[in-house]
Each structure stands twice: as C-alpha cells, then as structure tokens.
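seq as requested:
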Amino acid sequence: MSALSACYPRGATPGARLELTGFRLPVPLDGPPRVWFGALEARVVAASSRAISVIVPTACEGGPTPVRVDGVTGDTRVVDVARTLATDIHQVDSPVCVADGTIYATQSGTRENKSATPLYRIAPDGARDSLTVDIANPTSLALGPDDAVYVSSRFEGLVYRVNPRGDVDVYASELGVATGLAFGRDGALYVGDRAGSILRVSPGATPDASRQVDTFASLPPSVAAFHLAMGPDDCLYVTAPTLASRDTIYRITPERQVDSWYTGFGRPQGLTFDSTGTMFVVDALAGSAGLYRIDMTTRTPEPELVVAASQLVGVASHPHGGLVLASNDTLWRL
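struct tokens:
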C-alpha cells in the first residue's frame, strides 16, 4: 500500500519547492504523479517511489493546506503556506512590525531612482498606506524604544526617525553606507556601515552631535548590506553577504569581541529573534533559499529549515504571533 509520510519542510511560500516522502509512491508510466495542494494541482519536478519534489502553486491562498497524491490512501499531510500580504514593494532588508501588528515595508529603489512613496504601512486588516516621506533609498528598519520606526538610507549615510503620525526627522548622520539597524537594551542604536564598520549611536543622538557616534566593531565589507539583530544575550548578531561560497553570522559581545558564530549558510541575510529567544535567519543562496530556525540554548548552532522559499531577503517577528517574510518584492505572513 502506498503511503505519504511527510512534507519537508512543513512551511513554504507560494512558488517554493517542497519534498514529499513516503512508501511505494506512484510513478506512472505516462507522466509524473499528480499532487494537489487543496484544490490546486502542483507541478512535479522529480519523482520516485520514495520521494516527490513539487512546486507549491503560486495561487495558494495560504494557511494550513492539505497535500495529497493521486493513488495514495491514508492521512493527508498539511503544509503551512505563507499568506501574501503585499506585492510591488522593494525590500533590501527585513520589514518591521509595531505593537498593534502594523507592518512597515520599503520601496527602496536605486541610487538614481528616488521613490515618491518610499515607505508603506500595512495595517492588521491588510490595508496598505503609502507614506510620502522625504527619505531617499530606505534600506533597513528598526523599531525604537520610543515606538518610532527608524530607517537607514544607504546612499545618504543617514538614519531617520518616523513617529507613529508619520512625521520624519534625521536622527543620526555621517554613517557611511548605512544599512542594518538594531537597538540595544540601553537604547543605543547600532548601524551597519556596509564598508566594514558597525557604528554605535548613543541614545538621543542628533545630526550635529557626531561625538555620539563611534565605531563599535569592524567586519569584512559586504557586497550587499549588513543585517543586524540584537540577541537575548545582549550580543549583536550580524550577517554580511560577500562573494564567498559561504558567509558568516557574526556575534559581537557587549565588550566588542567579534566571533564568527556560524559559517554554514551560503548567503545569510535578514535575521530576527522571537519572544522565546529563538533565532530565525534567511538564507538567500539559490537552490537552498529558505527560513531557518536556530535554538539558542544549544552549545552548537544547528539550523533547521522551517520554510522553503524561492527567494527571501528578510524576516520579522510579528507581535501577534508568527513571522513576516520578505523577498525583494513581496511580503508574506506565516
């Protein structure tokens, strides 16, 4: 008797590749087996009697979705398909979520293309609000201790503060190629200068108080952008995509010691921590892209693939539970 035993991983974005495993799976002579996600037929890219690789239909609405294979009896398997929140955006780093569940995303553009609506707010009901603020090439986002959203501008070397009303002011300047952002427990803002520095901006810094900005640590430069997240251990975790075949997740202690914390990812980018202190990190390397979970209580990092994706650049923990994922042009809720 045929049996479908598992789907790996258990989560996916539409268009991602998943593997179904089982026993005596059908391998028809006249074509591939037929696989269904709910009422939608999936494209099969490889099949044997023990495993079937499929592409999640792009029209999947999202949520827990039953998966079945024609000719296989028994229990169906369920995949958590991410729900599409927004398209036609341009993310360079992770989105950010505020306490009421509103999500901020960017329309970053290129150096030559300054968007008229560089920021979007996506309300909990899905409504999207365009913020016509004067910020060129918004890159990374962070939620501050004052509940304002902080935005780096990589080509201006600035960090802006956007309050809940949408008012904007410059928070810090002369920050190099300003990319990743993260706040420490003491309210200090850490900024990744893509040229090879992690800068620390003291609480309350203003543009004309450059003495409040100092170099916290030095790292190899990145070809794309630094991505920052403050860990539950008060260490700063940084990814910095390069041209190497393997890139490092760095850990920087409060004493400014830099460690190569994990080197197993191909192209790690956005990362975050949930309320339990678990790390989630995006790997954007073609062929192994997806979202990985790392239990921070273990002595040795052991990433687990939890969401398959064709491409991702960022991830944010949602205050109402779950995660928000970002590719360059799409946001999903999982």
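The two ends are 34 Å apart (CA to CA).
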